[in-house]
Amino acid sequence: MTNAMIRFRDYEFEHNPETLRITSENNVVSCDSLYGKADVYGFGSRPRIVTGEGSIVGENCIYKFLRLFGVKQQNGSGILSLPSVKPFRAFFKSLEFAAEPTPELVAYKFVFVEDLSGDGGERPEKYHTLGNDEDLWDVSYRYDVPIETLLELNPFIARPEEVGEGEEVRIC
User: Fold this and answer.
1) Where is 61: in which H helix or E strand?
2) By the 8 A CB rule, do 151 and 172 touch?
3) Which of 65, 97, 159, 160 supports an S-S bond with 106, CB 3.0-4.6 Å?
C-alpha cells in the first residue's frame, strides 16, 4: 500500500487499515443451449466492494471511532479515496467492532459499496415539525440520525434542547 491515506467525504483515516480488499466483478451469466454448448452473456460491471479491518489506538480512540460512525450514518454516497485507485462515489455500508473495544484500542471492520447510480444516491430533504415537549434529542432517536448531523443540517440551532414546539427541523 502507498502512503496515501484513505478518505471518505471529509473524514481521513488516521492510519490506513491493516487489511484492504477491493472486489470488482462483472455480471456474467452462463446458460446451456439446446445443442449442449454453453452460451455466456455479459451484463456489465457490478459495483466494487471495498472491505477492510483496522484499529484506532490511543486514549481518545472511542471518540475517534464515534466520529467515524457519525460519517457512516450520513445519507447518500460520498467520494471514497483509496491508495493507488482513482477516487469514486460509494456508500458507507457497514462499520462494526472487530473485537471488544478497550480504552486504548478499537479494532473495526468496514464495508463500502460503489455507487453506480450517477446521482450521488442522495435522498430528498426531509423535515420534522417538533411537537410538545420534543427536542433535537427526541428527533435524533426517532429517525436514527446522529445529533451532530442534525446540528449540521440545522445551523440555526445552537443547542439540541433549545428548540420549540412547531419548529421545523431538517432531518436529511
Assistant:
1) helix 61-72
2) no
3) 65
Angle (nearest 5°) at CA 166 between 160 and 167? 45
Is the pTM higher than 0.90? The answer reads no
CB distance 45 to 81 below 8 Å: no
Q: What is the per-residue pLDDT for 2?
A: 45
Instruction: At 20, list the grid cell.
Output: 484492504
Residues in CB range of 57: below 8 A, 6 or more apart? 104, 105, 106
How far is it, in rounded angstroms, from Cα 76 to Cα 141? 19
CB 65 within 8 A of CB 56: yes
Residue 82 sits at φ, ψ, to 5 deg, of: -125, 155
Show the cell assigned to 36: 449442449
Task: Report DSSP letters for 153-172, one per residue.
Answer: H-TT-SSTT---TT-EEE--
Residues of the chain with pLDDT under 50: 1-2
Q: How far is the CA of 137 from the CAs of 42, 93, 141, 161, in angstroms? A: 49, 24, 6, 7
Q: State the amino acid at position 123 in one-letter form.
A: R
8: helix, coil or strand? Answer: strand
